[in-house]
Specification:
Elements: H1 2-32, E1 36-38, E2 43-47, E3 51-54, E4 59-69, E5 83-92, E6 95-104, E7 110-114, E8 117-124, E9 139-145
Parallel strand pairs: 1-3
Antiparallel strand pairs: 2-9, 3-4, 4-5, 5-6, 7-8, 8-9
Length: 146
């Protein structure tokens, strides 16, 4: 009797593993889709790996990574203000573009042109002396306007 029960429960484990694998795969696909929706001219914030879809513009912006952050910390006097460089991927009308957004240190925000759009952006948090910023802490605040 025990042998029969063992044989019946065996395939169930395979089914559980299959369902878990499928859920993980679907979760990975969902994560790649736009997570934020914003109107043109509306301020929005995304973290590394997140995307934003601009309503009515066939435009998706994905914050890929912070390439470098040499901004002078707020509580330090520096000879050079530094710069923060963020890599974004922009998908416009089915074509993917790579763009680096450079924000000079000691500025609240910067601007970059892309096709017929103006991207106004700022990278947060701003550095403090002696405190390291992990990749997961960075947020890019943007406004996309025509």
């Amino acid at each position: 009797m025990r042998e029969a029960n063992k044989k019946k429960s065996g395939p169930r484990w395979y089914l559980v593993i299959l369902v878990i694998t499928l859920l993980i795969s679907v979760t990975g696909c969902v994560r790649n889709q736009a997570e934020v929706t914003a109107e043109p001219g509306e301020v929005f914030t995304i973290g590394i790996g997140q995307s934003a879809r601009i309503t009515g513009e066939d435009l998706v912006i994905t914050f890929e990574e912070v390439i470098g952050d040499s901004r002078c910390p707020r509580d330090v006097v520096c000879v050079w203000e530094g710069v923060a460089s963020s890599h974004v991927r922009i998908t416009h009308q089915g074509t993917s573009y790579s763009l680096v957004l450079n924000q000079p240190g000691l500025t609240e925000q910067a601007q970059e042109a892309f096709i017929n759009y103006t991207l106004t952006f700022s990278l947060h948090p701003y550095p403090r002396a002696g405190e390291e910023i992990s990749a997961g802490e960075y947020r890019l605040t943007l406004t996309v306007s025509k």
